[in-house]
Amino acid sequence: MPALTGLSERLASTHLADPAALEEAAIEPAAGALHVDAVHRPSSVAPTARDACRVSDAASWIETRAHEDGGAPSLDVLAHLAGLSPWHFLRVFRSVMGMSASAYRAAQKH
What we know:
Elements: H1 7-13, H2 19-40, H3 49-65, H4 75-82, H5 86-97, H6 101-109
Helix pairs in contact: 3-4, 3-5, 4-5
Protein name: HTH araC/xylS-type domain-containing protein
GO molecular function, one term: DNA-binding transcription factor activity
InterPro entries: Homeodomain-like_sf (IPR009057), HTH_AraC (IPR018060)
């Protein structure tokens, strides 16, 4: 699995005082596993309209706070705001927005 390649090196090089960097390093393999699951699942279910609306609201929240001090909101915060579990949020966000939440956050900072 490509997401696991070099994971131990990335975790070792990530400064323990930077929780956002550690979270990003931990999310990569989880997102990769979700992608593999989605690709190989014969009857992948599309997100509900309610979930799509929740993700859209979370994306708007990211956009409005992209340049504020304090950095990007964590996965747990975004999932909580959307009323979804972190794993379901990751899957639905990617499905609705076409990219991961971390990629979306990074794109909004530029």
